[in-house]
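Worked example 4.2. Below are the chains of a multi-component assembly; read each line carefully before continuing.
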Amino acid sequence: MATVIGGASGGSSPSIFIFLERSTMKTPATFYHAGCPVCVEAEHQIAEALDPDRYEVELVHLGEQKDRIAAAEAAGVKSVPALVINGAPFHINFGAPMSALKS
Amino acid sequence: MATVIGGASGGSSPSIFIFLERSTMKTPATFYHAGCPVCVEAEHQIAEALDPDRYEVELVHLGEQKDRIAAAEAAGVKSVPALVINGAPFHINFGAPMSALKS
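Applying the procedure described above to all two chains together yields the following structure tokens:
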């Protein structure tokens, strides 16, 4: 969507400032972790490095939010930390297997 | 650093546009891959998702740039695809072991 906010009349031709508002629909990115050292580093270095203009990052601690384990497994997550973007699971290094979270 | 680029004289008080230039020192992020399907997906979904304002992403195809294998291993990369940020290696899923790239 384009928003015209007025012009500057200085100089020969009027300049009109048009601010094009980029689509604000952000891609959801879910970072599943269990609070382990590998998880914390991946969170700081990768989850927090995603472009905030294009991605809405949700951090999910599966050790504390056991109700989210089923959704993580349904998305293909087999270990944590893992980032799910556009339905695709990306396991980052290896912190712990999902089985360890279910005990 | 602040750059004053002039003002608009419309309205009661002159408005001065000050564009504050944020620090342009970007963090280097090296994405090592070998062109495999796992690599290509990780490249599109993660390497390209990093915030371009804060990160300078370099894509390195280790199958083609064999001279970069030593540096990747020195950074702790053991398989590809892998992203190295601030000297820390993050293996993303599993595409191929480094040994496969050295044959």
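Take a moment to check your reading of the output against the notes. The longest helix of chain A spans residues 37-45. The interface with chain B takes residues 6-10, 27, 29, 41-42, 45-46, 49-55, 83, 85-86, 88-94 of chain A (CB under 8 Å).
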